[in-house]
Amino acid sequence: MAGHGADEHPHGADRLCEAGDRVYSRAVRRGRVPRQDAEPVPCLLELALLHPDPDDMDWLVPTSPQEVMTRLLRGMYDEVSASGRRVGSAVAAVEWYAGLGHRVRPAASAAEGPAIRVLDGLARIQAAMDEATQACTAEVLTVQPGGIRREAELSEGLHRALALRGRGVRMRDLYTHVARHGQGLLNYLELMGDAVQARTLDEVIDRLILFDRTVAFIPANSDRTMALELRHPAIVEYLVTVFERLWRLAIPLTAPLPDTGIEGISHREQSIAALLAEGHQDAVIAERLGISVRTCRAHIARLSETLGAASRTQLGVRIAQAGLDGPQRSTTPLSVPGQESPSVR
User: Fold this and answer.
1) Cβ-count burial of 54 within 10 angstroms (0-12 exposed, 13-18 middle, 19+ buried)?
2) Which of 169, 28, 168 has the alpha carbon at shortest distance from 106?
3) According to the 3-state scheme, what is the secondary structure of the chain?
4) CA-derived radius of gyration, the chain
5) Which segments in the chain show pLDDT lower than 50?
6) Closest CA to 33 of 24, 42, 44
7) pLDDT for the residue 215
8) pLDDT of amino acid 131
9) Pairing of strands 170-176, 139-144
10) What whole-number distance in Å separates Cα of residue 62 and Cα of residue 68?
């Protein structure tokens, strides 16, 4: 908002500006405040004293004073040797937050954090992920949608993966079949060695990362600039169950994809045919399979040519005739309408 830039609030949580003090205190007393009340004090969001209400993004809820105190003291401890004068300021801030402590009940213990936390902005998402990585001791489960993983995406999380491998943490990753064609992913898996297992499916759910089956991260908006950090045991256990069922259906990256059983039709074209039969548009099919719309349409054109269809309507009929409108179970090559079977002369 014009006139209220972050440069007008050059302070930390240990000495709030007057306006920030008023808004945060009001949020603690009432449990939440409208997002518009915090527009003149961006410092409250930047310092994570307020964050979006998971139930209504037009409202902001306060971080409990106890959690704020924990953050302050942790940061002050690291800086005390270089900045002794800030200790007095931190003590004063702790006393101030302690005075508010009885007015709001923490959602969970300070060690576990709230059951559901909205992470607004890539910096806060990365910080929360780094914190979860440091606390992880046994297992990480991830679902990575989309197609070929870009080098930048793999590099961004490489430091976390290497840190986990160094502590003996086991990792299992689910990708779409398209990801098999990315050299960057193959290089990443070679680097990680037996610390990582990878499997692929035609399509997967949206991005999911689970640490030690106690904390999960999922996107909170379409462009993934917001995320939800989930620590509620029932929600996390549900997501683990979803992952395990997908894992059992997936194919190890080291194993070839099964033959479709239909001559001239690839595994990907079989998947596209099934989604066309369900009535999905090209863009939706492309997104679900992790390919571009242009590539999707090229496959549809080849599918039409193989099945001898001159129109989309006719293609739908031929897909049903060839048995491509559902799961393909047979491994015996089948002929398709308009083509001679190889066993018949």
Assistant:
1) middle
2) 28
3) CCCCCHHHCCCCCCCCCHHHHHHHHHHHHHCCEEHHHHCCCCHHHHCCCEEEECCEEEEEEECCHHHHHHHHHHHHHHHCCCCCHHHHHHHHHHHHHHHHHHHCCCCCCCCCCCCEEEEECHHHHHHHHHHHHHHCCCEEEEEECCCCCCHHHHHHCHHHHHHHHHCCCEEEEEEEHHHHHCHHHHHHHHHHHHHEEEEEECCCCCCEEEECCCEEEEECCCCCCEEEEECCHHHHHHHHHHHHHHHHHCEECCCCCCCCCECCCCHHHHHHHHHHHCCCCHHHHHHHHCCCHHHHHHHHHHHHHHHCCCCHHHHHHHHHHCCCCCCCCCCCCECCCCCCCCCCC
4) 26
5) 1-6, 108-111, 328-345
6) 24
7) 96
8) 92
9) parallel
10) 10
pLDDT of residue 281: 87
Q: What angle do CA 103, 71, 132 make, to 5 degrees?
A: 115
d(Cα 24, Cα 44) in Å, to the nearest integer? 7
Residue 6: per-residue pLDDT: 44
The whole-angstrom separation of Cα 260 and Cα 321 is 15
Task: Count CB neighbours of 40 within 10 A.
Answer: 17
